[in-house]
Amino acid sequence: MVVANFAALPFPDASFNIVFSRVGVIAPHHQERADELFRVCRPGGRTWLIN
Questions:
Q1: What whole-number distance in Å separates Cα of residue 36 and Cα of residue 47?
Q2: Domain limits of the chain?
């Protein structure tokens, strides 16, 4: 398990096939936080946000 700041994930671009957030993007600057999730997801990968 990795504990990290949601605003700047400590993973290279396109690191994961699947990125999942169980609490959605509940934070200031929603778009920047969502962009960070998409940044670490590989092209063609899946990103899920659930509230």
A1: 11
A2: 16-49
Q: Which residues contact 25 (CB under 8 A, 6 or more apart)?
A: 33, 34, 37, 49
Q: Is 42 helix (H, G, I), strand (E, B) or coil?
A: strand
The CA distance from 17 to 51, in Å, is: 21
Cα dihedral 25→33→2→21 (10° resolution): 30
User: pLDDT averaged over the chain?
Assistant: 86
| Statement: the pTM of the whole predicted model exceeds 0.90 | no
Q: What is the pLDDT of residues 7-24, one digit of tens each?
A: 889 999 999 999 988 776
Question: If DSSP codes are grouped into helix, strand and coil, which group holds residue 40?
Answer: helix
